Amino acid sequence: MFTLATDIDALARFGRALADPIRCRVLLALRESPAHPADLAETLGVSRTRLSNHLACLRDCGLVVAVPVGRRVRYELADARLGHALDDLRSAVLAVETDATCVDAEEEGCR
Asked: How far is the C-alpha of 66 from the C-alpha of 72, rounded, in Å?
């Protein structure tokens, strides 16, 4: 049983990050390989401003890091185990219930 505040906080941060479809897509893209924001925005079909907000949320959650590369910044998962966790979580959820739908309450954002 999770009783430590740090365990609960870690899971809450992961859940907050996964609560938004764009953030999920960012995490899945970064699972494949590190990327520059402009490339991510183009790949995901979102504006750079919108992507920037989601990247800031993911950084605040501690799930991605910004790595300076010359005059540009590249984003990557903060730890390779996060990619494995995403794969494991997706597999577990699909194994439990393949036809369930999750109705969103009000979208709250990442604050």
From this structure: 10
